[in-house]
Structure formats: structure tokens, C-alpha cells
Amino acid sequence: MKAVGYFVEGARRDGDLRPIGEQNRAFVDFCSRNGYEIAGTFLDTEGQDPEESGLQQMLGFLRRGDHGFTVVVVDCLGVLGSDLGHAAMRLLAIEETGVPVYSAEHDEEAARAIVERWASQGEGTPVSERVRTAMRRKAVRGEALGRPPYGYRIGAGRRLEIVPEEAAVVRYIFDLYLNEGLGIRLIAGRLNEEGIKTRRGGRWSMVSIRDILRNRTYLGTYSRFGVKVPDSHPALVSAADFRRVQERLQARQPSMTRRSVQPFLLSGLVFCAQCGNRMIGVSRRQNWTTRAGESRNATYRYYQCESRTNQNACQYNTQRAAELEQRVRDQLAESGEAPRRVQHTGNVDTFVNDASAQVERIEGQLRRLRRQVEEIVADAAHGHISLERMRTLGAEPAREQRELQEELRQARERLAAQRSAAEYRQHLEELRTRVTREWDRLEFAELQVALRDLVDRIEAGTEGVRVFLRS
């Protein structure tokens, strides 16, 4: 078994500075006590470029896998961050690679050490904990919290009461599903064809229909924060009908086999040329048996109009993913001026302001993620969830943080490049050249970010594909 050491210059243990030499000795002693072979060490120094930091190098090393080691070892929690919130974020970023982190200070899992320290110090979110406790008390009394579900409004005593016109639509949806045998997509299409609007006056989608069919609030039971209050408000459907709907929904779900979800390169950039709505990536797996009796399977990936998929609207517009991505690549490689849908005035301040706003937006999202992680750790510290549940819930914020940090790096580079219209145009042309030349060599995430910087919009339809560049 092998271990990797992670050291940080300036880290402190209980307020005392821990020099790199002492961190290294603690790591070596930990490996000796626990029978680990040293696989390597990574170091973060003060003033180091974040992109070239020891942490980033270690994460890249861990993600490659097949190294034969089992743990990452830090001297103490101070190596992971100057406060417990920062330490939790960094811990989850490391463990998101599938490798646990141990603290040499007490020979224990760093996750457990953070939770115990959080519980003893009340670090992070005591106010949030008090708010959550107060909201649980309200939930026990059946008082509605947040936005009421479609079909209800908040009435006297903050109890849910029926909105007659919306309640009729809810019952209609259950009737279409149970008695007319319509699927979720067809129900969305029926409501849209009949001119029935959502609460916000929009069109119905598969997601909104599915949410209604699964919402236990329509049984007259209020559920929030783990609290269930039966008969807290008037029901809209019977328990028997609701159970039949859930059984049918469950029967239509594919078998729960583990599978990796491969993202789509052009997500968010492709729009339907017919209706103007977004096109979403769809994967379909097909199994069949040949005449010779051999079992075969294949996965088909394509972009499909969201209006058609979720609302049963628009014409049939499907583009094979590989073919569409190749056509986009070919158009980017063509010489000459490509279409530019967005034309700027040429004001330098416009570019700088746009880039600065994007940097601020991403930084705000990172702060939100940190608060989310702190809430998760606080839940573990107060015994609401287990340590493993904390890891599971924290994995997604850790992945999102990694993506946002890369997006932030790109945004800051754009901010540096957008000091003038000429510089920005030159930056886009250089990016276009790089993308077309290095398309096959770039990592997926890097290529996707570059395309989002370069391409404003892709319109795909039966008459062809048009790529609009940013200007």
C-alpha cells in the first residue's frame, strides 16, 4: 500500500507554524506506523501560480489512477485550509478523485477530524442551524415553507389551500396518465396544444409533468426537512391513484445499472433552426440479436430540439452528435470571415465590463458552493447525516467547484485579453486557429470552454448548420 504526502508552506497546527520539514517528518512517521510505502509528495508554496500549484498537480496525478496507493496524508487540517470551511472544500476536491485523506496529527480520516472540530467549535453555520431548526418546527405544525406546489397557494395560518383552476389541471394530468395512457411527453404536448399555461404563463415540459406526478403533496401530506404531516391540507388525488402512478413510473424506468454519463461537447451552444429553442444532448442505448444469435449493442448520441423532446412541439429535428461536431469544426477551419451574430460597438469598456461581470458571477457561484458545503458539514457535525452521506452530498459541489475554477481561470484570461477591441478580436482569431488545429489533442473540458468563448450560437436544422462567432 502506498501513500502520497501533501504539504503547504505556512500551514499551522493549533496556531503554531508547521515548517515543510516538520510536515514531511510527520508524513514519514505516519507511513512507518501504518505500513505505507511512500509514493510521492506534492508541495504548495506561498505566491505560487494556482494553475501550477502542488494541489493541482496532485489532483491530476490522482485522477490518472492505477498508482497502487490508497491514501493522501496531510500533517493537520491547517494544510487543507486556514479555516474549516476552506479545509472542507479542499478535502472534498481531493476525495472526489476517489482517494481518502488522512491527518497525520491523530492518525484519522481528515473528514472525521473536520466534522469533530466543527462540532466542538460550532464553526461555520450556527445561525443556519438555528434557522433550520426553526423551520423544522414550522414544518411539524404543517406550515408551508417556500413556494407552494402547482395547485395550491398559502392561505390562513400558512396552510396550503386549493387553487381551483390549477387543481383541475393537476387532476387532468393524473387522468391523462392513468386513464388515457398518455406518456409524460404526450401529456406536455396535449396541455400545450390546448393552450393551458403553467403558473408563470409558460409552456409545459416533461420535467414539470413528471414533478407533478411524483409530488406527494397532492395526497394531502406536507413533507419538508424530513418531517411528514399527513392530512395537513386538502388532497387533489386519491392514495390509490397516486400509488398506481408511482408503480407505472417505476416500471418505465430503465434498470439501475451504473453507467458513466459522457457530456456533450456543444451543450448550450446549439439551437433549433426551426423554432429557435435549444437542442439538448440525448444518448440512446440499443440492444439486439443478430441472425447468428450474437448479442450486440450500440450507443447513439445526438442533439435533439428541446421543444420536441420536452414539450412535444416543433418538427422532428435531430442531429447526430459526431456529424454535427465535425461540421462545426469544418466551418471553424474555413478561411474567411465567419458569420457574427453579435456585433459590439467597439467600446473597450464594454468588453472589460462584460468580462468583469462574468468573473464576479463565477466568484459568487464559488461562494455559494462553499456555503453549501458548510451546510453539509454542519449537518454531519450535528448528527443529521452520516460521514459517508456527507461525502456523497459533497461530491457534486466538489466537481462543480473544479469546473467553476477552470471557468474562472478562462474568464480572467479573457478579462486580460479584452483590454481593447483589437486585442479581443485578435484573441478570438488566435483561439479559432488553436481550436481548429488542436481539436483532437485538447482535453474535452478545455475544448468545450474554448468553444464557448469562441462560438456565440450554432443553428442546426434540415437545411444545414450555421456557426455564429462572438464578435
List the helices and strands and how they pair.
Blueprint: E1 2-8, E2 12-13, E3 16-17, H1 20-34, E4 37-44, H2 54-64, E5 69-74, H3 77-80, H4 84-95, E6 101-103, E7 108-109, H5 110-121, H6 126-140, E8 152-154, E9 160-162, H7 164-178, H8 184-193, H9 206-214, E10 222-224, E11 227-229, H10 239-252, E12 270-272, E13 279-289, E14 295-305, H11 306-311, E15 318-320, H12 321-333, H13 348-381, H14 387-417, H15 421-438, H16 444-454, E16 455-461, E17 464-469
Parallel strand pairs: 1-4, 1-5, 5-6, 12-16
Antiparallel strand pairs: 2-3, 6-7, 8-9, 10-11, 13-14, 14-15, 16-17
Walk me through this protein's architecture.
- This protein is of the alpha/beta class.
- The chain folds into 3 domains: 2-121, Rossmann fold (3-Layer(aba) Sandwich); 132-252, Putative Large Serine Recombinase, Chain B, Domain 2 (Hect, E3 ligase catalytic domain fold, Alpha-Beta Complex), CATH 3.90.1750.20; 348-469, no CATH class.
- It is 49% helix and 18% strand.
- The strands form 6 sheets. It has a 5-stranded mixed beta sheet, with helices on both faces. Strands 12-16-17 form a 3-stranded mixed beta sheet. It has a 3-stranded antiparallel beta sheet with strand order 13-14-15.
- A hairpin with a 4-residue loop joins strand 6 (101-103) and strand 7.
- The longest helix has 34 residues, at 348-381.
